[in-house]
Amino acid sequence: MTTYEFLCRAFQKTAFAGQYALPWGDPDLLRGPGSVNELPALIKSLGLRRVLMVTDQGLMKIGLPAPLLQGLETAGIFCAVYDKTVPNPTTTNIDDARRVYDENRCQAVIAYGGGSPMDCAKIVGFLAAYPSKTAAKVKGLQLHRFRKLPPLFAVPTTAGTGSEVTIAAVVSDAATHAKFTVMSPLLRPKYAVLDPELTLGLPPAPTAQTGMDALTHAVEAYISLSHVKPTDERALEATKLIFENLEVVYADGRNLAARERMLYASFCAGAAFTRAYVGYAHGIAHALGGLYNIPHGLGCAVTLPHVLEAYGESAYARLADLYDAAGLPEGPVGAAQKGKAFIKAVRELNERLGIPAGFESIQDKDVPEIARRCLKESNPLYPVPKIFQQAQCEAVVRGMKI
Predict the structure, then answer these.
(1) What is the DSSP letter of 151?
(2) pLDDT for 184-199, tens place per residue?
(3) Which three-class secondary structure state does DSSP give residue 83?
(4) Where does residue 137 rank: exposed (0-12), middle (13-18), buried (19+ CB within 10 A)?
(5) DSSP β-bridge partners for residue 59
(6) N or C: which end of the chain has fewer CB within 10 A?
(7) Looking at the whole model, is its pTM more than 0.90?
(8) Cα–Cα distance between 115 and 189 in angstroms, integer?
(9) Under a CB-based contact definition with an 8 Å cutoff, are residues 31 and 165 in contact?
(10) Rounded to an integer, what is the distance from CA 18 to the centroid of its chain?
């Protein structure tokens, strides 16, 4: 073990010990078809009368939030709307949404949409409790801050990010386009709505990409060295549900039962990785998103098998468990064979979902910067099975170039 690896592992062991002092309870859930209609009554019962909805223009254009907005109005709740959130939300998005929150004297935040509105809304709520801060000033771990945040109600319209249960938000710096992560127990939503009807209109491509994002969460959490029994249970359940249902909803987006199971799979995967962490698949995907604006789910889907192959034997035993959980065909025997077979199964799933094996957009000149950004995010924080340094990470990225 090199000195660098020793220092990374020492940090991770300290963080692992510290996690037992943090609250890990799930958000209160509203679940099932039509459950979003229960939200106005819940908000009113909490004595809240002025809220901010953070969403995006695509959802507003198709009118998906309209029934909830009408329900809030009927319940006597004023709702300001910020709908300028972009994919890979920026510090500018967050600061603008925070101004809307302040100007309308809001008391709570509704995150409505995919991972981008979720992440934007989380930081808006955080900044509401810390008015001297801006979005660019809250990077990294925020474990020393314990002010009470306004209630956050998470309404996911995709089954992928799991952001409705996580303590993290990912933000793009508007000036540098580099992504950074903010983590705090305070960012976990207080309430989450898992209504599969809100996901019925999602086209096949984003359905596939967000579903593979959830699978990446489950896999990276399960092979993490900071896994514990609760994260293992959630990661295995998510893997099982995704392999059983993702291709179903990809082929038939109106299958309500499969959509509901995918939403719960995303929730389980989010609960797993927010405690056990992710790994280099996410680090590389974040770098690709920052440099080329590649959607996060697509970046994770493409990157995952490449990273798993690079981990090699350090991950095979845990990947073998995932092979079994996924219900894949009998045949491979032993950890190494099953581990390799699981990686192959992920590649084949990507292919069936129309997801490419790599990216033409990756430029040779950018490879060192992609690796640098990945490692800056990942080391020493992520307790990965095998610690990469610059040359190893660059090799993985070059292997993704087509």
Answers:
(1) P
(2) 888 999 999 999 999 9
(3) coil
(4) exposed
(5) none
(6) N
(7) yes
(8) 13
(9) no
(10) 22
